[in-house]
Design a protein that fits this description.
The chain is an all-alpha fold. The chain has a domain of 40 residues. It has three helices and no strands.
């Protein structure tokens, strides 16, 4: 299967398809590619960082003060 066929079948752009192939996605069949993608899926939204607080950025408020 060619990259273009795989790209069209999966509905991906050229750059994304090429990146996934470099990462190891098989190009034998669409089913193989989909299975690989599911196994290697990164959970969470891309580009979104954790909502965990950063202790260095914490601001302490003293009771009774106004800012």
């Amino acid at each position: 299967m060619t990259r273009e066929q795989l790209q069209r079948e999966l509905g991906f752009g050229k750059a994304y398809t090429n990146r996934k192939i470099r990462e190891g996605m098989p190009t034998t069949t669409v089913e193989d590619a989909k299975e690989w993608l599911e196994e290697h899926a990164k959970r969470g939204k891309p580009g979104v960082r954790s909502k965990a607080p950063n202790p260095a950025a914490a601001v302490l408020l003293v009771e009774g003060s106004s800012t």
